[in-house]
Amino acid sequence: MSLAEPLAPARLGALRARAATPAWLALPLIAFLGVFYLAPVAMMLARAAGEGDWAPLFAAIENQVAQRVFLGTLEIAFVCTLATLVIGYPLALFAALAPPWLARLAIAAVLAPFWSSILIRSYAWMVLLGREGLVNGALGGLGLIEAPIRMLNTTFAVYVGMIHIMLPFMILPIYAALKGIDGRLVQAAENLGASTASVLRHVILPLSLPGVAAGALVVFVLSIGFYVTPALLGGPRDMMVSMLIAQEVDLYNWDLASAYAGGLLVLTLLIVAVASRFVDLGKAMGGRK
Amino acid sequence: MSARALRLSAGLPARVALGAVALLVALFLVFPVVIVIPLSFSGSEFLSFPPESWSLRWYADFFTTARWLESAWLSIWIAVVAAILATVLGTAAALGLARAKFPGRAVVTAFLLSPLVVPAIIVSIGVYFFYAPLGLVGSPIGIAIAHATLASPFVLVNVTAALAGFDPRLEQAAKNLGASGWSTFRLVTFPIIKPGVMAGAVFAFIASFDEMIVALFITSPGNVTLPIRMWESMRNEISPAIAAVSTLVILLSVSLFFVAARIQARAVARSGGDR
């Protein structure tokens, strides 16, 4: 890429400074998001404050159903994070070790779900997990079950759907971290007599931890905001915070809905703020949705 | 070349085991997306797999039902407007943030990326409060604006990535040769970051086209987007009609991804494989 002879660092720095595109180019987007995104969210938070007495917020905090739903949501997000890590890591490792053509195929499989929306993927699981669905049909055909098992509208279905949707967000950063490992480190460990298991444990796993951390953060944060998947696949007991908020909106309890939404926002930002000390969020998102 | 690709001299059983697990996970990822396609060609009212008979009736149904078509066109229109807004604003912001250093830059960047992580339901309620007094509830342009706010981070991330592999001396050379700021951008900067801009635009289009939650809050009975129409019919019944609509939506997304991938591949080829 370099067209000229390498420049001395000092001189290069001077050129960079002069070549800079002006910072004000960021202003239109800042203003746009300020008006159509930040101001609306601020209005929602003001609604949660009530008439200055924070009555909706206190009502929300004291509501026992809401307490259960918030805790349940955290539990679902935690299980999804753990499950995507355990399920996703082997595929990421396989792709990182495989020859290029095979790695491309594996990554294509990871990216394939992005070709369809969360709505369509949830619909696919409705079809697969239903009473007359493919999974029941296959299990019955193999003689493993006598009568169809109820899977749709259960917590199990919510987990299957959410894990399916969140897996790529876990796999891609782990894959990127694994690809960044210098193979000579593995070679050195092997030359010194380390077994495959101890190379994995003492070299590859520790060096891939930044990818694991990035993936875990993204999966956890996105999971606590889920709405469509639990609404379509879960039963009445699998309510997540977003569904609770939508339910209050349906009852025109805008103040209470705003208070719950404020709680969800604070929770999200808190997790991101704590985690961003360890993880580069922009990198974790990797330019993909 | 100093670094070496990751390689592991594991025994055959370990390799086979890893490969088998990876294959299972890959099937788990791909299968639910693929299964929708054969189901859409079912000839019966009910979903069964494999379908008992084959037909195109659900596609015929889609293309002859006014409310499906109206929703599809509305979603495309909204996604185009949202993608244009997000791409113009996002590209400018990426240029401004990539080259400049100013206090609070990290905070500004975090704010601009935050729509990626803030749950849609939170934005939905806020946007409803904000739009109601302005009369924007129920208007397509209102939905497009809201979608542009949610889609702009995809452009920002993609263009920032494209700028990272960009030698600023090229811009300097253009300026030294007398090009104005705008000519420098048009003739030097933009052609190089174009793949990132196009990828960002495609992601922004798809983000808007698939978005349902915010649209649900600010829609009106006369302006129902395609995902909302699908959501409503999914909650009532599981018929193959949704499979047909889903297949068409997947087809649209796949073609857009291929267009973006082609543009990126061409750009890589032009720059001599340098990335």
UniProtKB/TrEMBL annotation, chain A:
Keywords: Cell membrane, Membrane, Transmembrane, Transmembrane helix, Transport. Pfam families: BPD_transp_1 (PF00528). CDD domains: TM_PBP2 (cd06261). PROSITE patterns: ABC_TM1. Belongs to the binding-protein-dependent transport system permease family. CysTW subfamily. This is Putative spermidine/putrescine transport system permease protein. It is found in: Cell membrane. One of its GO terms (cellular component) is plasma membrane. Residues 70-275 form the ABC transmembrane type-1 domain. GO terms for biological process: transmembrane transport. It comes from Albimonas pacifica. The chain crosses the membrane at residues 21-46, 76-98, 105-126, 156-178, 199-228, 259-279. The keyword Ligase does not apply. InterPro entries: MetI-like (IPR000515), MetI-like_sf (IPR035906). It is a multi-pass membrane protein.
TrEMBL record, chain B:
Keywords: Cell inner membrane, Cell membrane, Membrane, Transmembrane, Transmembrane helix, Transport. This is Putative spermidine/putrescine transport system permease protein. SUPFAM superfamilies: MetI-like. One of its GO terms (biological process) is transmembrane transport. It is found in: Cell inner membrane; Cell membrane. It is a multi-pass membrane protein. The chain crosses the membrane at residues 12-41, 72-98, 110-131, 143-166, 196-218, 238-261. One of its GO terms (cellular component) is plasma membrane. It comes from the Bacteria. Coiled coil: none annotated. It holds the Pfam family BPD_transp_1. Belongs to the binding-protein-dependent transport system permease family. Residues 72-260 form the ABC transmembrane type-1 domain.
